[in-house]
Amino acid sequence: MTTLGKLVRTTAFKLSVVYLAAFAIFSVLLVVYIGHTTQQMMREQLNETIEAEVKGLGEQFAQGGIRRLIDVVERRGRQPGASLYLVTDYSGDFIAGNIAKLKGAMPRDPEVPIQIVHYLRNATDAQPQEAAVRVFVLPNGFHILIGRDMSEGRRFREVIGSALRITIAVVGVLAVLSWLFVGRRVLRRIDAVSDTGRRIMEGDLSRRLHVTGSGDEIDRLAENVNAMLERIELLMQGLKDVSDNIAHDLKTPLTRLRNRVEAALRQEPSVEGYREALDATIEESDQLIRIFNALLKIARVEAGSPDEGRERVDACEIAREVAELYEPVAEDEGVMFTADICEAAPVEGSRELIAQALANLVDNALKYGTLAARDDDAGPLHITLSVACAGGEVVMTIADNGPGIPQEDHERVLRRFVRLEESRTAPGSGLGLSLVQAVAHLHRGKLELADNDPGLIARLRLPTAG
């Protein structure tokens, strides 16, 4: 398709045509209104002028008779202007005035207020002029015609018509120019969007739509699409990482599972040996099932809508239930467990998922805190669970004085299957913090990790329910 064909099919062209038609109609109506109003005013002024002339000439006739009236008509007729006078006798013959000839018969009906006639001011004129006149009958059969030339009104209509044509022509030219400018500009940006989209479909997910910074609707669309592309790229990268991590992390338990089965087959047949091998196989299988269940849970959370299944829940109540669940466990492990929970902290979301996320954080603090060896001077492991409202957020904090996580690994441990070397001897899959972060994102919140010096502080921030 040619560039002109593309321009004609653009929304800018269609809007230009609509706006031009609307403006043309509005201009015509405005000019018609102005012309009609002006003509009405001119007619009223004409009537007032003729009435004044009639009154004045009537006074002259009353004071000096027909002779004085003729003198006044002759004098006024010689003055330049649009006023017209004609006095005739009872037979219609010319007596005085500045009208040389009427085209047609002399109006003789004084009952008609205003009549339109055509006349020649000079006998040599080739084109008759138009006039609005009024006729009065004087005693002795004399007729006097008083009127105004209509040339000014005709010229006014011509000026209005010319102004309307020029206005429509100028607006049309401006509309075409603006269409060409805006249409080509929009078309270039749309072509750029199409080109970027084609490259993205070819597999280059790093491409982004150009944002000019003008803040118009195309910029807003580009920003939203870019945000969507960043999300897609992140998910694709996450999928790749998950695939790599599954291949790496599941290889070890599967290998152990196979080796144990092979070892059981190679050893001397015995019921006790087979039982131990089967128990170990079941334990490895359960670990694999737990890993897949965690992956499925994370996938469901990440694919869920933030507004789906939302309800108003109390984060403090959830935290108290988690504290009651883990206090006996902490006591058995010799861990000091403290809960500092406010009265109420309403949030909107899934009660089950928030409880799962909070339990994962407490479980990590217990599991990895008790795993590391502690100096006598360090004292017992101390875990604190607190909930508070601040700045429109509900902040659920789990702090411990355990081994903690190095600052440079805070972002890395939120990825799936990431486990630090120090914790590889502990049971787990490296998916707990990934699940907590997915729950935070689902609830439009965030998970933060910070140093407790010593130990770790994990903060789960969720927006307060309105």
Descriptive overview:
- The chain is an alpha+beta fold and about 475 residues long.
- The protein folds into 3 domains: about 5-155, Beta-Lactamase (2-Layer Sandwich); about 250-305; about 305-465, Histidine kinase-like ATPase, C-terminal domain (Heat Shock Protein 90).
- Helix content is about 55%, strand content about 15%.
- It has 9 helices and 13 strands.
- The protein has helices spanning about 5-10, 10-80, 150-200, 215-250, 250-265, 270-305, 315-330, 350-370, 430-440; strands at about 85-90, 95, 100-105, 115-120, 130-135, 145-150, 310-315, 335-340, 345-350, 380-390, 395-400, 445-450, 455-465.
- The chain has a 6-stranded antiparallel sheet. It has a 5-stranded mixed sheet with strand order 8-10-11-13-12. The chain has a two-stranded antiparallel sheet with strand order 7-9.
- A hairpin with a 5-residue loop joins strand 1 (about 85-90) and strand 2.
- Helix 2 (about 10-80) packs antiparallel against helix 3, helix 6 (about 270-305) runs parallel beside helix 9 and helix 8 (about 350-370) runs antiparallel to helix 9 (about 430-440).
- The radius of gyration is 49 Å and the shape is rod-shaped.
- The two termini are about 55 Å apart.
